[in-house]
Write a structure and sequence with these properties.
Helix 1 runs antiparallel to helix 2 and helix 3 packs antiparallel against helix 11. It contains 13 helices and 11 strands.
Length: about 350
């Protein structure tokens, strides 16, 4: 674009006061104007996330935008907004329904709050997945794809790819250490505003406090909440460990980041464009996964620097305490037998 402006100004200068060059200058201006129009993107999309700028998840979004720009020949531009710049989780989801936001990078289970999408709460069932790899495999499998499609039809928001393995979730508190489920009784924890998360922690006597990610640090520092549950990728990038000094490695949820798009926007795209978006999401997801592994390896050192007490709790006790959480959803929010099918798919 800078070239276009400079070229136009140069030709105007040349043509001024020189009638012999005027016709040539006009023709050249027409050529440059056409080229400049062709340089402009045919489609510009707003892509938001609550994740922190320069985090592994933000870098995944940037990679997605690069791939789309390159493979579309600059015809599709993706503007990336991190740090909840265009909304927190709930605002991004609402924005995609309203058309004010085109895309978002969130967790799979965040869609569980949408109309007729409650089955996607299953992604956050404690101890459903064995590890990151199994979570990625199952969440990309045919069982879950049915729910993504039905959710898009009902809610107007589509998960078109699941890529970018997250750190396993931990319980990080200002009081502790947390070694067994009973240690959480009476605590006030920031928990995502997702039904299955709320029920999971309320079953242990926790007072659940729903807050946006960008509100958690201040709430921890002021004592408004006693802790939160996130892994290294969010806890360290949001610096929550600076104000909560007890880390319990429960590993209760293995999550994979999901690539969301407005269903209206998705339907307006060609099949080739949709395939491009899927390829770009996989490329971005690989960045998130690879950098996330580095974050997990370096996380322990960061905790030591901040004087955080790290414990591995009695995971068997937590798993036993939460073994019946799924029952209020089975046959109501999702089909009977879904949990067993997802567990069987990991064998």
């Amino acid at each position: 674009m800078k070239f276009c402006i400079s070229a136009v100004l140069a030709l105007v200068f040349i043509a001024t006061g020189n009638m012999k060059l005027c016709i040539s200058a006009v023709l050249a201006l027409v050529f440059i104007a056409t080229a400049c129009v062709n340089q402009a993107a045919d489609l510009t999309l707003r892509f938001g996330t609550p994740f922190v700028t320069n985090s592994n998840l933000h870098k995944a979004m940037e990679r997605f935008a690069e791939v789309v720009d390159k493979e579309s020949g600059g015809k599709i531009r993706v503007q990336v907004y991190a740090d909840s710049q265009i909304g927190d989780i709930q605002q991004l989801i609402a924005g995609m329904q309203l058309g004010t936001v085109d895309m978002a990078y969130l967790g799979v289970g965040n869609s569980g709050q949408l109309k007729d999408c409650g089955a996607l709460n299953v992604a956050y069932l404690p101890y459903l997945f064995k590890n990151k790899e199994k979570a990625t495999q199952v969440l990309n499998g045919p069982i879950m794809q049915e729910f993504y499609d039905s959710c898009a039809k009902s809610s107007g928001v589509r998960i078109f790819a699941v890529a970018g393995a997250r750190s396993p979730r931990a319980i990080v508190t200002t009081k502790g250490p947390i070694r067994k489920p009973e240690d959480l009784k009476g605590m006030r924890l920031r928990i995502p505003p997702i039904p299955i998360f709320r029920e999971t922690f309320e079953s242990l006597g926790v007072k659940v406090v729903p807050l946006g990610l960008n509100e958690v640090y201040m709430a921890l520092s002021r004592g408004q909440v006693d802790g939160q549950d996130n892994g290294f990728d969010l806890t360290v990038t949001f610096r929550f460990h600076e104000v909560s000094k007890f880390w319990s490695a429960t590993d209760h949820v293995y999550d994979v980041a999901a690539w969301y798009v407005s269903e209206r926007r998705w339907k307006s795209m060609t099949k080739e464009q949709q395939e491009l978006f899927k390829r770009a999401a996989q490329a971005g997801g690989k960045v998130a996964t690879d950098l996330g592994e580095q974050v997990d390896r370096q996380g322990m050192e960061e905790l030591k620097k901040q004087g955080v007490t790290y414990v591995v709790p009695d995971k068997a006790a937590f798993e036993a305490a939460w073994k019946d959480v799924y029952k209020s959803y089975e046959g109501k929010v999702w089909p009977d037998g879904l949990v067993e099918r997802l567990k069987a798919a990991q064998k």
